[in-house]
Design goal:
The complex is a heterodimer of chains A (about 325) and B (about 350). Chain A is built from 2 helices and 22 strands. Chain A is mainly beta and about 325 residues long. Chain B is α/β, with parallel strands linked by helices. In chain B, the strands form 2 sheets. Chain B has a 9-stranded mixed β-sheet with strand order 3-2-4-7-1-8-11-10-9. A two-stranded antiparallel ribbon of chain B has the order 5-6. Classes of the chains: A mainly beta (about 325), B alpha/beta (about 350).
């Protein structure tokens, strides 16, 4: 069996995900920045912290803010022996806790900075440790600590500071993507200068790139077929927007659907080697391979005219 | 349930865990379950009225990756199709509704996920409240451990009971060829193992599993033709609780209780229950919410502690109960599926082997 290809993949929103807070969450986050905890009174009179805009049970709009804390009591906890450094609040082992602040009726999640799980218990009294730099974020609290274990320093609000109206949430997830069996064979083929597809079991259709299935029937495909690196332009687009392709820095350039000889699915590629206004349906083109072949679609840089006569429309109309 | 409802039954079920064959991609491991479930139903693939899947794009980190799953089902000529970004048990609910309103008489449901590609316990932090919880990056296991702590503190369960649940589940998983985490270990042995996420041990936490499952539903005479003993859905309901953890009573599952009431769990004897318990402590919470008697067998398949192909695990619970009904082992059973942190959203499905 072909060894499958693995690739590192990062899912990230550069600069972070931006959200507006709305008036209620904004007031809560403004409070954290300014050194106070504010909850909101729910329909049944209980104080909800963090505050919600609407009552979680009656959906009534809520508006009566109530200052709570800053100290509170642990209602549940667990221990993080291996923190996710750079993401979780502390980079050394710590406790998570649900903390019911004094005056609140609901608990909120935060970290508790203690040296060992032995220091934690349900009922433990804790107090916040604010960060020196505060921006209006749940992370303006570095962590909670056992009450009285250090001086409680409550920050004062900066005069004239604007209320918090938005947050930015950095998000980064790491993956090791597994290409699967059929795509791995195709990608390894590219590294050898070959284009490898798969033939359907119950028809003569050849799919490139192969996915391991015949998408029309859902049946598996297992017969590898090498197709040509020469084909016919079935349709194309002249791009006049700069900066979209590293391989085509000059505009206009052309991207096209190319039906490789021997394949029944069109391939997406760039067309170079002739002026954009001379690219046409039926044009015969040949792949230009990269100097260094790798198991990646980038092994084919683009396509150029092969010099053969154009293909008659009737022979590829099904693909145009 | 209203007497006007159509009779709808599970007439095909297949599951496939790619952990036995990690080389396959999603399409490659969906194909066999879809083929098997359809073959069991005997309904020609292109006669199936509706296709609906459940998956999560964040598992593989690519937008709209769920669309690729369609390559495994045969979508030409174009089919009537839908998708939920939920466990496929909710896809089954959508299919059941579609059959109830009379749009179609049969449906293919599949769920799939490759949890091994990223840090799956971290990925689901993106479901949490974006202002007060998500920026702290608690993992799924961290939040479950907080719930377990709360449940033990409230006297709802105990560390010993967690070990007993884990021991029974892992032992049952040994007899399930689809399970990956079977082991023969007593509760005492498990209690001697290290606590990794206070109060949970590794044995209390479902294994990271890649895989897929598929079910075929059919209505009325089509179901009777498809199966000698269809597993009829007699009630199905799902309910959700607030996202804010502190607002909920984590020691009980009110959404499960309400869903169970609406699905009619108490209207007859429960001979088997398959529960979507990704952590040991969820079993006593769910048992109480479902009103199950102490002698009701829970997760004879080993349950999610034996294998947990996220986005298919809940659907598999329905399939496991249906399989036992179709085999004639039981006449009535309950399946449960969940989604969201600390059992936020719950689906309950009652299946029976005989027409009422």
């Amino acid at each position: 069996m072909t060894e499958v290809l693995l690739e590192q993949h990062v899912l990230e929103y550069p600069g972070g995900y931006t959200r507006s807070t709305g008036p209620v969450v904004g007031r809560f986050l403004t409070g954290l920045r300014d050194g106070r905890f504010e909850g909101i009174r729910g329909s049944d009179g209980t104080v909800i912290v963090p505050p919600t805009e609407y009552d979680p049970y009656t959906a009534a709009a809520l508006s009566e803010f109530v200052q709570v804390g800053p100290a509170g009591v642990v209602t549940a906890w667990t221990w993080v022996a291996e923190p996710r450094v750079g993401k979780q609040p502390l980079d050394r082992p710590f406790a998570w806790a649900l903390i019911k602040l004094d005056g609140a009726d609901t608990a909120m999640l935060h970290a508790v900075a203690v040296d060992s799980p032995d220091a934690m218990s349900v009922g433990l009294r804790v107090q916040p440790r604010w960060r020196a730099e505060r921006i209006g974020s749940i992370r303006d609290i570095e962590a909670f600590v056992p009450e009285g274990s250090e001086p409680l320093v409550v920050p004062s609000p900066e005069p004239d500071a604007e209320p918090v109206t938005g947050i930015v949430t950095p998000t980064r997830l790491n993956y090791e993507i597994n290409a699967g069996i059929a795509p791995s064979k195709y990608l390894r083929g590219l590294a050898e200068g070959k284009v490898i597809g798969q033939r359907a079991v119950d028809s003569d259709q050849v799919y490139v790139p192969p996915r391991g299935s015949d998408p029309t029937s859902g049946e598996p495909t297992e017969i590898e077929v090498e197709v040509a690196d020469v084909g016919t332009v079935t349709t194309f687009c002249v791009v006049n927007v700069p900066g979209l392709s590293e391989l085509a820095p000059e505009i206009p350039y052309v991207c096209a659907q190319i039906l490789l000889d021997g394949a029944n699915t069109a391939w997406f590629g760039l067309i170079q080697g002739l002026p954009a206004d001379e690219v046409r349906m039926g044009l015969r083109v040949k792949a230009v391979w990269a100097d260094e072949l790798i198991p990646n679609a980038a092994s084919i840089k683009w396509f150029e005219p092969s010099g053969e006569p154009d293909t008659p429309y009737e022979s590829y109309r099904e693909y145009a | 349930m209203s007497p006007a409802l159509r009779d709808v039954a599970v007439v095909g079920f297949a599951q496939n865990l790619a952990d036995h064959d990690r080389e396959r991609n999603e399409v490659e491991f969906i194909i066999p379950v879809v083929r098997d479930a359809i073959a069991q139903s005997g309904i020609p693939r292109h006669d199936i009225g509706f296709t609906v899947s459940g998956s999560c794009d964040y598992l593989s980190g690519g937008p709209f990756t769920f669309v690729q799953g369609l390559d495994a089902v045969g979508a030409w000529p174009p089919i009537k199709e839908s998708h939920v970004e939920m466990d496929a048990a909710w896809a089954l609910y959508e299919a059941w509704v579609s059959i109830q309103v009379g749009d179609v008489d049969s449906a293919l449901i599949y769920g799939f996920g490759k949890s091994s590609l990223g840090d799956v316990h971290e990925i689901f932090n993106l479901m949490n409240d974006p202002y007060s919880v998500m920026p702290l990056w608690p993992s799924t296991v961290d939040l479950a451990a907080l719930q377990a702590c709360a449940a033990i503190a409230a006297g709802v369960t105990s560390e010993r009971e967690l070990a007993e649940v884990a021991s029974r589940s892992h032992t049952a998983a040994l007899a399930n060829p689809h399970a990956i985490a079977g082991r023969d270990a007593s509760a005492d042995v498990l209690l001697a193992e290290p606590v990794t996420h206070v109060p949970l041990r590794d044995a209390d936490i479902a294994p990271i599993t890649d895989g897929a499952a598929a079910i075929v539903l059919a209505a009325g005479d089509l179901a009777r033709k498809a199966s000698s003993r269809p597993a009829w859905i007699r009630g199905i309901e799902h309910r959700i609780e607030p996202l804010a953890l502190g607002v909920r009573d984590l020691t009980r599952s009110e959404s499960t209780r309400l869903a169970a009431e609406a699905a009619g769990v108490a209207d007859g004897p429960v001979e088997v229950a398959e529960l979507h318990t990704q952590f040991s402590h969820e079993e006593p919470i769910l048992r109480a919410a479902l009103g199950l008697a102490p002698d009701v067998p829970v997760n004879p398949s080993g349950g999610p502690l034996g294998a947990n192909p996220i986005m298919a695990t809940g659907l598999i619970r329905i399939g496991e109960v249906a399989t036992r009904i179709t085999a004639g082992d039981v006449s009535r059973g309950v399946a449960h599926a969940t989604q969201g942190p600390c059992l936020q959203q719950n689906l309950v499905c009652v299946l029976e082997g005989e027409q009422v």
